Amino acid sequence: MFPSWSWIVGLVFGATIGSFLNVVIYRLPRGMSLSNPKNSFCPICKHQLGVPDLFPLLSYLASGGKCRYCKTPFSSRYFWVELLNGSLWALIWWQYILVSYEPLKAGFYALTCAALVAVIFIDWELYIIPDELNATLLVFGVAYQAFNHSLNVALVGGLAGWGILWGIALLGRLGFGKDAMGHGDIKMMRGVGTLIGPGLLVANMAIAVVSGLVIGLALMFVSSRLAKGQVSGVAEASGGEEEVYEPESIGSLFIHGAWYLLCLDIIAIAFPKMYKWIGEEQLEQNIDDDDWKPSLTTIPFGPYLAIGAILCMVFASPIEKGISTYMQNLSRPNTSFKTTGLRFAVTSRKRINWCAETLTGGSKQGRNFMSCDTRRSARGGNDWNVA
Ligand SMILES: [Zn+2]
Questions:
Q1: Which of 121, 187, 296, 300 ranks highest by number of CB atoms within 10 Å?
Q2: Any idea where the domains of the chain sit in the sequence?
Q3: Cis peptide upstream of residue 37 (ω within 30 degrees of 0)
Q4: Ligand 1 center to residue 59 CA distance, Å?
């Protein structure tokens, strides 16, 4: 229906929306209006940006990443957000317009990816996920499933997203006395779950945990090396005062959990007085007044959940295929999965027997051995009754 080069349309549209996402990423958490001022402005000289500044990707490259008026360099984030969203929309165009023709899915997946790109950059910088974005995710999810005549998927997926994340928060609080999960993460996965359904949601969680561990550990390694050089400076700045860590009360966790389950947080965006019901004066806190400073090793989990959700949407079909193959193997008898499991059990048992015999026989003869496996190979294979 469309020629194969038409993925460029996705790239151009995606980069243009990415340009708007830069406005969202800057203004939304700062409590600024998205529509006023209408034109973007340079944050330094406040000069309104003109037509030559409004071409996504190209304007940044042409101006060398600087304001055309005061020559102050812009953050490279502006470029990366446009490139990331452009690439994602190109991939979605490829997958859901060219490979399989599902325009409804393409549209909602593209819009949701854009919202998640905003989540990634806001949560990474400021450790919050604005309620407006979480509401947007839920609305996209419910609308897509309604058009698709599958509101039951939305219900199960949304409940699963809410339940898994809130459950982790509760377990972390009960088991370790720590805030294990941010409230924004619970609300985000409630919305994502309605769109992608329970199957992909589990894959999403797995990707988030694995990528969070890998990237998180790498960052902790890097930042701990940085911290070693900065220790004296930090101690002076904070006056040596250690802040007392006070986790959220279990009662509050239950109240907020019920609040998110009933989606009252979304209604409260229009009626801010509702926040009093859960003992919050107003949720929209001014980030500039917020004196909470995360430690160097604090890493938000939201970006990893969002990355997992994006990968689940872009690569939905291979992931779904993998899940269904796995489920079939679990339910079918005498499959390769079970045979492999059985073979593993038998060889493990043989190996344990061999180790036990070598251990008892070996110790009597006063032998010094490093490990069963090296001795076994040293004696040339399977004669494990010799000892
Ligand atoms: Zn400027």
A1: 187
A2: 1-101, 131-229+247-286+295-331, 345-378
A3: yes
A4: 14
Instruction: Using the mean position of ligand 1's atoms as its centre, give its distance from the Cα of residue 222 in Å.
Output: 33
Apex CA 83: angle with CA 116 and CA 10, to 5°?
80
Query: Residue 2 contacts by C-beta under 8 Å, 6 or more apart in sequence?
Result: 97, 98
**CA angle, 195 then 266 then 182, to 5°:** 75
At 48 the three-state DSSP class reads strand
Compute, in angstroms, the gap from residue 60 CA to the centroid of ligand 1.
Answer: 13
Alpha carbon of 26 to ligand 1 centroid (Å): 16
User: What is the Å distance from ligand 1's center to 290 Cα?
Assistant: 27
Query: How far apart are the C-alpha atoms of 7 and 90, rounded to whole Å?
Result: 5
pLDDT in tens, the chain (387 residues): 889 899 999 999 999 999 999 999 999 998 888 888 777 888 788 888 888 888 889 989 988 889 888 998 888 999 999 999 999 999 999 999 999 999 999 999 999 999 999 999 999 989 899 999 999 999 999 999 999 999 999 999 999 999 999 999 999 888 888 888 889 999 999 999 999 999 999 999 999 999 988 988 888 788 777 766 654 444 444 444 555 667 888 888 999 999 999 999 999 888 888 888 887 765 455 555 555 556 555 568 899 999 999 999 999 989 989 888 888 888 876 556 556 666 666 666 676 676 566 555 544 444 444 444 444 444 444 444 443
Taking the C-alpha atoms of 222, 224, 228 and 231 in order, what is their torsion angle to the nearest 10 degrees?
Answer: 130
pTM, full prediction = 0.78
The 3-state DSSP class for residue 247 equals coil
Calculate the CA 219 to chain-centre distance: 16
